[in-house]
Design a protein that fits this description.
The protein is α/β, with parallel strands linked by helices. The protein has 15 helices and 15 strands. Helix content is 41%, strand content 15%. Helix 10 links the parallel strand 8 and strand 9. Helix 5 crosses helix 12, helix 8 runs parallel beside helix 9 and helix 14 packs across helix 15. The chain binds pyridoxal-5'-phosphate (PLP).
């Protein structure tokens, strides 16, 4: 079977796709891909293409496609008990076992895990927990949340407000009041090229401290950040950033929410980004890698000091008035158990560190001297190649995105999926954690060829 025009037509006529140019798609001007299968690091589509998925879907298919253990676990769970809710103390063997497995892997100091469906809803939950916490503590004014420009935390009303990307605010009346954004920890895009990394860190910490002082520390409840900026450009923090941020937050009694939707369960070559950078979170957001996207499931891991106050809150106010019908869905939980087991069995956290480093090293060898490559960076199984028309000035293309988009399209024609990251000309790579060195070589070769073909 090659093309299926009926399906393609239904797609253009019926399907409202997320993060898509709606009008162009409906008119048939924007690309369309109908995906039919996946095996290991590759997907296949209806046009007969087999593509190496250098972005693991949306940095989520961490164990790769077609894993029999997870598929069988889902099927078994569906036939035994496809659904029961988790309200009022109800659980299933799968949801209880997965909560134990998550807590066994969580950084120290964490007390419980609440399960949702996706990263956005987990961050909505987190902010409600923070507000509840400060109400119970008798601090009703302490409610504002600090996020960062270029952070990504989802696209709900609150999570979309936390996201620091203009595309997710413009025309949606976001961000909501009470959400503040600190400067993006992106050394390549530092305001002054002469700044050392240490000076840039000092600049970021001063920006954060100034923001807190301007708003009043007694009005600020929490700070949320990804260990490594993801959708905002795959940007590891400058040295000293996280210890400095944590010291400021502690000084002002501000909670730390670490959004590990991308980094949780191995992507950085450590089980959690919090371990990787020595963070002491009050809340951790998890999703994607929890089930490797075989079924939707997310979570909020709650630290002990918050948990104690939440318990006090229910003693004072009755049951906790928050939950989703599909919280801790047994099919998601069964997928999660099989997925975390597989990550351990295959040593994928170690492979993320080893093969991820190999991928970046090969990328730097191939493209480090290219006149339009300004920066090659990443951590664990994450890699970004930032493009510029002028390496000396670090200028941006006009319009932004006009080069990364065509390069990524050219790569797909050559059989490799990369992602043109929004708001800058950045080629993003977040392959499955089971990537081999041969596959890494294919990604690098295809990136190089596509870049030359596009810029020629
Ligand atoms: N947080 C981070 C760091 C993410 O990367 C994402 C999605 O990419 C989200 C939250 C939102 O997750 P979801 O798309 O599952 O709602």
């Amino acid at each position: 079977m090659l093309t299926n025009d009926q399906l393609a037509q239904w797609d253009r006529e019926s399907f409202f796709h997320p993060s898509t140019h709606l009008a162009q798609f409906a008119r048939g001007e924007a690309p369309q891909r109908i995906v039919t299968g996946g095996e290991g690091c590759h997907i296949t589509d209806r046009d007969g293409n087999r593509l190496l998925d250098g972005f693991a879907g949306l940095y989520c298919v961490n164990v790769g496609y077609g894993r029999r253990q997870i598929i069988d676990a889902i099927a078994r769970q569906a036939s035994e008990l496809a659904y029961y809710h988790a309200y009022l103390g109800h659980g299933t063997e799968a949801s209880i076992t997965l909560s134990k497995m998550v807590m066994d892997r969580a950084p120290k100091g964490m007390a419980r895990v609440y399960f949702g469906l996706g990263g956005s809803d987990a961050n909505e939950t987190n902010i409600k927990l923070v507000w509840y916490y400060n109400n119970i503590r008798g601090l009703p004014k302490k409610k504002k949340i600090i996020s960062r420009w270029r952070g990504y935390h989802g696209s709900g009303l609150m999570s979309g407000s936390l996201t620091g990307l203009e595309l997710f605010h413009k025309k949606f009346d976001l961000p909501l009041a009470g959400v503040l954004h600190a400067a993006a920890p992106d050394y390549y895009r530092r305001p002054d090229a002469s700044m050392t990394e240490a000076e840039f860190t000092a600049y970021l910490l001063k920006d954060l401290e100034d923001l807190i002082q301007r708003e009043g520390p007694d009005t600020i409840a929490a700070f949320i950040g990804e260990p490594v900026l993801g959708t905002g450009g795959i940007t590891p923090p400058p040295a000293g950033y996280w210890p400095g941020v944590q010291a400021i937050l502690k000084r002002h009694d501000i909670l730390l929410i670490v959004d590990e939707v991308i980094t949780g369960f191995g992507r950085l070559g450590s089980m959690f980004g919090s371990d990787h950078y020595g963070l002491e979170p009050d809340l951790i957001t998890i999703a994607k890698g929890l089930t490797s996207a075989y079924a939707p499931l997310s979570g909020s891991i709650v630290g002990q000091r918050m948990w104690d106050v939440l318990c006090q809150g229910t003693d004072e106010n009755g049951a906790f008035g928050h939950g989703w019908t599909y919280s801790a869905h047994p099919i998601g939980a069964a997928a999660g158990i099989a997925n975390l087991t597989l990550i351990d069995e295959l040593g994928l956290v170690e492979n993320a560190a080893r093969t991820g480093a190999y991928l970046r090293a090969r990328m730097a060898e191939a493209l480090g001297d290219h006149p339009n490559v300004g920066d090659i960076r990443g951590e664990g199984m994450l890699c970004a190649v930032e493009l510029t028309p002028n390496r000396a000035t670090r200028a941006s293309y006009d319009p932004v995105g006009s080069v990364a988009g065509p390069v990524v399209a050219e790569m797909a024609r050559r059989g490799v999926i990369a992602r043109a990251m929004p708001q800058a000309d950045v080629l993003g790579f977040a392959p499955p954690l089971c990537l081999t060195e041969d596959e890494a070589d294919t990604i690098v070769r295809t990136t190089t060829e596509a870049l030359h073909a596009t810029l020629r």
